[in-house]
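Example 9 (inverse folding). The structure is encoded as follows.
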């Protein structure tokens, strides 16, 4: 089965084609111009998706020497994300499916990330998680600790009570003058800091054991900066790696702590780390170490599939299709995560 996956929830337009569970092509066009604004401008994002989506689809089809009629299943992200941006991909995909009389599958972006742990090119012997698995989703908009029991049963153990992990990276990067997107910039600065004395930034406690809170950490960094330098503009360039490394360490320790609690309470043989922040090397290394201690499989997608991509949308659509889920062309975009509803409802 040839599956088309379209992702336009934020600042990446992505078109992928899978043959069943094998990724054949995954094209990602990133909207770099948001750098000039220090963050994503929703209207500009929608317009850019609109301009690139058809050329990107053409390019993907050409690469595989396929015609659009040879696509068997069409999918797109329905939410959560920027509503205007989502509407571009979703409406395009629905129109395409309707005109070609092909089945259409709307995919939840978070579900896409959760199942990105299975993505691979070709059919190599990739390490894949076994159900039930614990999964940490860390993206720009969401931080979720989940128990994935099956394709259609995902239990939310914890979430963030304020900022998402990626959002914290982006805000702190902006605060110390590193620009957008902050995650990779903080990581590379932190990498240059080889000394062991870190600033101890406190991470707020939450009521629920598995929840996260990163807003207090962001304020702690700001307080430190104001106390040491008087203003954000006066931070010494040579001090930035230490601030970046200390902040990164605090986020990673907070994430790891909750994962460890879950690992000691749930008997699973696999753990998956997914989402944009899963690209962070320090986080990958810490969680690899932790899962080793518990003697379980550690699964993390290759860097290409950590950030937003169409392959994870197509893959999740394929699994929903196999699970017998049916959707009609009326399916609408939604901007926020549906409370306690981690699986897109049928329509
Ligand atoms: O999943 P994603 O591509 O988009 C959303 O669904 O939000 O995640 C984007 C987030 C951004 O906040 C970005 O700063 C963060 O992932 N990120 C990283 C790294 N690479 C991307 N955070 C920390 N370290 C990285 N290497
Ligand atoms: Zn994402």
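The amino acid assigned to each position is listed next.
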């Amino acid at each position: 089965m040839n599956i088309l996956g379209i992702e336009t929830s934020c600042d990446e337009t992505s078109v992928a084609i899978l043959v069943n569970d094998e990724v054949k092509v995954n094209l990602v066009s990133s909207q770099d111009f948001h750098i000039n604004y220090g963050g994503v401008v929703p209207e500009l994002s929608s317009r850019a998706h609109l301009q690139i989506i058809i050329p990107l689809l053409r390019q993907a089809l050409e690469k595989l020497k396929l015609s659009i009629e040879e696509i068997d299943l069409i999918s797109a992200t329905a939410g959560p994300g920027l509503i205007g941006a989502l509407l571009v991909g979703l409406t395009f995909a629905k129109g395409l499916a309707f005109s070609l009389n092909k089945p259409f599958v709307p995919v939840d972006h978070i579900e896409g990330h959760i199942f990105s742990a299975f993505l691979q090119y070709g059919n190599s012997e990739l390490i894949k998680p076994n159900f039930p698995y614990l999964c940490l989703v860390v993206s720009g908009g969401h931080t979720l600790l989940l128990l994935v029991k099956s394709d259609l049963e995902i239990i939310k153990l914890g979430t963030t009570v304020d900022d998402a992990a990626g959002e914290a990276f982006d805000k702190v990067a902006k605060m110390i003058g590193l620009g957008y997107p902050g995650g990779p910039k903080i990581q590379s600065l932190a990498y240059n800091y080889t000394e062991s004395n870190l600033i101890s930034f406190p991470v707020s406690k939450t009521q629920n054991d598995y929840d996260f809170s990163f807003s207090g950490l962001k304020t702690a960094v700001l307080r430190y900066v104001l106390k040491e330098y008087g203003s954000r503009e006066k931070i010494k360039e040579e001090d930035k790696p230490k601030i970046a490394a200390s902040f990164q360490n605090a986020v990673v320790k907070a994430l790891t702590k909750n994962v460890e609690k879950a690992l000691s309470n749930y008997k699973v043989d696999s753990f998956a780390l997914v989402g944009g922040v899963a690209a962070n090397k320090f986080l990958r290394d810490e969680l690899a170490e932790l899962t080793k201690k518990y003697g379980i499989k550690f699964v993390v997608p290759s860097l290409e599939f950590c950030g937003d991509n169409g392959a994870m949308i197509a893959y999740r659509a394929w699994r929903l299709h196999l699970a017998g889920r049916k959707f009609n062309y009326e399916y609408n975009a939604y901007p926020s995560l549906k409370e306690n509803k981690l699986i897109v409802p049928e329509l």
